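Chain A, query sequence.
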Amino acid sequence: MARQSPIKFSSPPAIPLDSLILVTGANGLIASHPPRRGRFLLVKAPDLATPGAWTEALQDDVAGVACIAGSVNLHLADHEVDAEVQQVLRAFFNLLEAAKAHPSVRSFAFNSFIWAAVTPEAGVHETVTEDTWNERY
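Chain A, predicted structure.
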């Protein structure tokens, strides 16, 4: 029997409330919040841009994907930025293609990650918490 939600929906949710959701980047500050709400299984994927990186994480009963993982490489020289962006895009499109190939996936959400909260500056130390927001831009 499905759990009753305290939230009142104007239309039925896209996936059942007790569904298994793949949350990418769950070891980060922002993505650590959704796994606290339900079933949790940690799957390590060392290089998200490698084809097949999502095979283990996308089990047959995954109903939705919350794509929150992103690059946190803070030590890029200007000439390395384009390559890093390409790596992030490959990881995202690999996940999108893998989700598309699984008929159980009914919902896919691309979310923000740490850069919405803070843009690091060389030599500036700051603590990032759930209350931090990037006010600079």
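DSSP finds one helix and three strands in the chain. The first strand starts at residue 20 and ends at 24.
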